[in-house]
Amino acid sequence: MVFVSASVDVYLFTAIAVTLPVLFYLRQRNSGSRPEAPYEPYLIILVALHTLYILYTLILCWPFNLFSRLHIPLNASPDTIRSTLVRRAGLDVDAPLPRSLEELLTRLSAFEMRTLYVRFGQAVLQECEHCKTFNDYALFALPRAFLEYVREVAIIGMLTIRETGRERWRTYVVGALICAAVAEAYWIATAAIDVPENGLDVFMWHDMLWALRQLVFLVTPLLTHFLLPSTPSYASNPTAPAHAAQLALEQASRRLVTLRYTRGAVMRDPRMRAAAGDWWERQRVEGEWAREDETVRRVADRLGKGFDETGVEGEGRIRKITREAVASFRAGLVAAQAEPS
User: Fold this and answer.
1) Is the CA virtual torsion 296, 297, 300, 305 positive or negative?
2) Could you identify which of 31, 94, 220, 316 might form a hypothetical disulfide with 306, taking C-beta atoms 3.0 to 4.6 angstroms apart as the criterion?
3) Which of 161, 163, 160 is nearest to 224 (CA)?
4) Does this entry carry the keyword Transmembrane (predicted)?
């Protein structure tokens, strides 16, 4: 059942099929762990909006083609084309057509213009009033396709900005788009136009290359953002681990200072001192329960996290790691104190 029209219904259902997974994905990321990049949700929204736009272009903005839409041969006379248009539109035989269509039919009187129609499409021949030669039509058609490729390069640039982990793919993806643009221009300029005697089943180069271009634009951002492997930020920035360690140490230092003042404040308040004492006593009792349980000690030793004085392999692993950490920390303090100021 058609609600609005076949093409509009197809686009609406396609848009819903694209939007719902994106919303679900964003909700899962918000409820889960923090994304790798702070602007990752915005990039996902950008890809979704771009996908909806390209689908809209493919489904609802397909280039109009008189010969394909009306199923008339490419070598049909202008009078035949005009009578077919009038009949399909339900107009009188002598009813005037729009000025742009009348001028297009006049131009199609020459066979060379029909080959240009196949190369550049109906919109170029219908809108360019001053064009006469192949070069004129090529220069008129170039900015539209060029701006579309520039738009896609800008989209890829935003999807591969710093801290996304995909910076190294920018050159390759942009290079692929440039190769696609060059290939499209080459085929439009050099493709052979074969017109059979009946004038039917002519390969419309402009329409097919336009469709391939939109498909490339549809797939490229999806592949770039979701399928190309991303690398951690420290892989491209060697100083990132040191910077992250410095931030962690500064945060730990602030917490230790805060803990010292908090400890002093707690001890000055009788109620808080009593609550803190109860908490530590409860932790001591629960710790003794765990340490005195034979099953817990045995499982901890088997998992390599033994805390007993003598585990499966001598001293318990937790105690050994703790002793080594304390010794390393003490050695660092001694070395820092021994350095001349």
Assistant:
1) positive
2) 316
3) 160
4) yes
188-222 core/surface letters (b: 16 or more CB in 10 A; e: else): beebebebeeeeeebebbbbebbeebbebbbebbe
Last residue of a domain, one of 216, 236, 256: 236
**pLDDT tens-digit profile of 192-223?**
888 888 878 889 999 999 999 999 999 999 99
- Domain boundary residue, one of 236, 259, 291: 236
Give residue for tokens 């049909």.
76
- What the block records as the tokens of 153 is 């390069």
Same domain, 171 and 296: no
- Contact between 230 and 223 under an 8 Å Cβ cutoff? The reply is no
pLDDT at residue 1, rounded to an integer: 44
pTM, whole model, 2 decimals? 0.66
Which tokens hold the place of 94? 């002598």
Question: In terms of domains, do 69 and 144 share one?
Answer: yes
Do both 159 and 108 map to the same domain? yes
Report the pLDDT value the prediction gives residue 234, as an integer from 0 to 100. Answer: 46
Enter the tokens of residue 76: 């049909």
DSSP string, 257-293: HHHHHHHHHHHHSHHHHHHHHHHHHHHHHHHHHHHH-
- Taking the C-alpha atoms of residue 62 and residue 58, their distance in angstroms, rounded to an integer, is 6
Residue the block writes with tokens 């088997």: 302
Provide the number of structural domains found in the chain.
2
